Each structure stands twice: as C-alpha cells, then as structure tokens.
Amino acid sequence: MQKQDLRKEYLQKRKALTEMEVEGFSRKIHDWFFRSIPVHAYATIHTFLPIKRNNEIDTWLIINTLQKDFATNIVIPKSHEDGTMSHYLLTKDTVFEENKWKIPEPISNIHHQASSIDLVLIPLLCFDKKGYRVGYGKGYYDRFLAECRPDVMKIGLSIFEPVDEISDVDEFDVKMDYCITPKRIWDFN
Fold first, then answer.
1. Residue 134 labelled as part of a binding site
2. 0.70 exceeded by the pTM?
3. Is 129 annotated as contributing to ligand binding?
C-alpha cells in the first residue's frame, strides 16, 4: 500500500482506540523498551512528546523512568514552519506551550545539536516489515534523522503491528533500526 492510503487507514484505527487502550499499549511499549534496550549505553536520548488527542503513545512513561532511574540526557523537539526541528534538553525547569498542531513544545531551553543525539524514539502511524515508517506526511523526522550521526539508534514506537510493505518508499525515507509494539520488538538490522 502507498503512504497516503496507509496514513488515512491508521489515523482512523488510532482514532477508534479508547484512552484506556492507548494507556495499556503505552505501558507495554515502555516495558519492552526498558527490558530490551540497553538504555545505560546511550548518553542522550531524543523523544517526541505525545499528542494525546491523536491517541499517540504516551512517551511520558518512558521519560519519567529515564529521569528517575538513568543518568541520561533527554532531548525533545520543537517544530518549525519550514519543516525542520530544533532540539532542547528536557529539565525540571522546562516550560511548554502547544504549537498550532497542539503538540507540547519547549518555549526555550538548552539547545542540542542533532549530531549529539545517541538514540531517537520515532513517532509513526504504521511501519512495514523492512523498517520503513509512515508518519503524518510532513517529513519532519526524515529531515531530522538525516542530520543525525550515521550510527544514531533509530527506534520507532507503534501501537500496531507492521504491514507487509510500504510501496512508495523513496530515497528520503530513513529506515529504523528497531520498532517496538505492544507485542514485540522488530529488529531491522
């Protein structure tokens, strides 16, 4: 299937989920992440913040565990009109405001370069068995991942299991290393 069709289908599937279902899936993904990924090996982890109205995975569960149990720098994004993102260290003093898409973003804080990030948690609507993802279609993460070091660990977080293949993958699509679902971790290496 093509990205446009998958995007439409999986937006509908996510919209149909209850708050309790999303909470349960988020907890299972959190558990897989900490059970299977050697988090202590990564000094700086970048994560998206969830858009609750879109039934996105609650990454605050992961963030809270990282803050409580690990000496890891957590970096969060801020989106810009030109399709790029800037990245900021999350601290106890970070102040947020929602952007025009209702995504919580840091107002200002300590800026981080993409090249200093060791692991990225990637939002997605769906993914395929080859490790490619379908997001909201604006290309923010593909541009961001292209700025990261070649060895950055790329981990998608998905409520749903993969489709067989995304038929219109192009040269700008960045393949994930892993994708975590409520049922398992998919390894694309």
1. yes
2. yes
3. no
